[in-house]
């Protein structure tokens, strides 16, 4: 249950902040945002505020912001079609009733001759007397079909009408917010837990850990492990990781006395799928406001470099599916982090946030990076790409991503449950 709650909170936060970045900068550019969704598939819960419907959907595998103009906009109303018109106080059309007009007795039923709901915002139609009249349409008018209302999107409210810079920022804002979130989480971590320092000294000792069972204590200064001198934390953890399930001897100083303590590290799966040792000790810490801020940025940068190292392996061909994790793998790793305490979970959440930001910026169709590539090509060519061709590329990219997710998930199941 703790794992499930942790996963819901962490993924909810990461997806929310990512999509909120898209939403905020899209609205700043004047784009009509029809929906802000967490998850995909059928709606579980929704409410509307201002022009946007906020929804939670069944499948918790991401989210989206549906901006006007990214998809085919609305119902095609052709000349000769009968529609109902409802007017506001300014005598502009506020509702266009497409069907079920009998349910709207207040509507004026007319026969369409000409309709422009993007540029001129007019409807030219014949009334019952056969007169051709032009009606002005309100910028926030809605189309009503099957009793469902859809707000019209004049051209100046559509994604494609904005400058290259505005559109690029609206797309880049999602990953950018993930990087900012990681920095904020890590600053908070350093403020509450203390800023980790690179010393060969033992910080917190995890309950029921190999370190506690062997007798290691917080504050112990480590001189050597198995006779090998230790100068800093990185050297100490490197030796521990190399000896899963093998006894190693710590030489430590405690209260002016030198002690020799044998410890047998437990085993866990390392960053690249290999077994590694761990004893359940935390890095020593110190408290500093400025140091915490610096730590937030430097640790975020470190996470970025680690992720790019894995991506580099893909390019060079040294890639294994064990280097990546799907929903099942991330669920299990989150459970392990939750079991180690809130501060380990905070670091894990920051790492996931950085990972989400970078993966979304890769030049893959259907991802933010793929969309930025098309915006960049438009800037170079001086004209947009064919929307149908671009949509096809994104569709193929999305299908391949779903296929990769299935393969990775199956690999996770094999690793953890078979």
TrEMBL record:
<feature type="transmembrane region" description="Helical">
    <location>
        <begin position="168"/>
        <end position="192"/>
    </location>
</feature>
<feature type="transmembrane region" description="Helical">
    <location>
        <begin position="293"/>
        <end position="317"/>
    </location>
</feature>
<dbReference type="GO" id="GO:0016020">
    <property type="term" value="C:membrane"/>
</dbReference>
<keyword id="KW-0645">Protease</keyword>
<dbReference type="GO" id="GO:0004222">
    <property type="term" value="F:metalloendopeptidase activity"/>
</dbReference>
<dbReference type="InterPro" id="IPR008915">
    <property type="entry name" value="Peptidase_M50"/>
</dbReference>
<keyword id="KW-0482">Metalloprotease</keyword>
<dbReference type="InterPro" id="IPR041489">
    <property type="entry name" value="PDZ_6"/>
</dbReference>
<dbReference type="Pfam" id="PF02163">
    <property type="entry name" value="Peptidase_M50"/>
</dbReference>
<protein>
    <recommendedName>
        <fullName>Zinc metalloprotease</fullName>
        <ecNumber>3.4.24.-</ecNumber>
    </recommendedName>
</protein>
<dbReference type="Pfam" id="PF17820">
    <property type="entry name" value="PDZ_6"/>
</dbReference>
<comment type="similarity">
    <text>Belongs to the peptidase M50B family.</text>
</comment>
<keyword id="KW-0862">Zinc</keyword>
<dbReference type="GO" id="GO:0046872">
    <property type="term" value="F:metal ion binding"/>
</dbReference>
<keyword id="KW-0472">Membrane</keyword>
<keyword id="KW-0812">Transmembrane</keyword>
<dbReference type="InterPro" id="IPR004387">
    <property type="entry name" value="Pept_M50_Zn"/>
</dbReference>
<dbReference type="InterPro" id="IPR036034">
    <property type="entry name" value="PDZ_sf"/>
</dbReference>
<keyword id="KW-1133">Transmembrane helix</keyword>
<feature type="transmembrane region" description="Helical">
    <location>
        <begin position="337"/>
        <end position="362"/>
    </location>
</feature>
<dbReference type="GO" id="GO:0006508">
    <property type="term" value="P:proteolysis"/>
</dbReference>
<dbReference type="InterPro" id="IPR001478">
    <property type="entry name" value="PDZ"/>
</dbReference>
<feature type="domain" description="PDZ">
    <location>
        <begin position="194"/>
        <end position="267"/>
    </location>
</feature>
<keyword id="KW-0479">Metal-binding</keyword>
<keyword id="KW-0378">Hydrolase</keyword>
<feature type="transmembrane region" description="Helical">
    <location>
        <begin position="391"/>
        <end position="410"/>
    </location>
</feature>
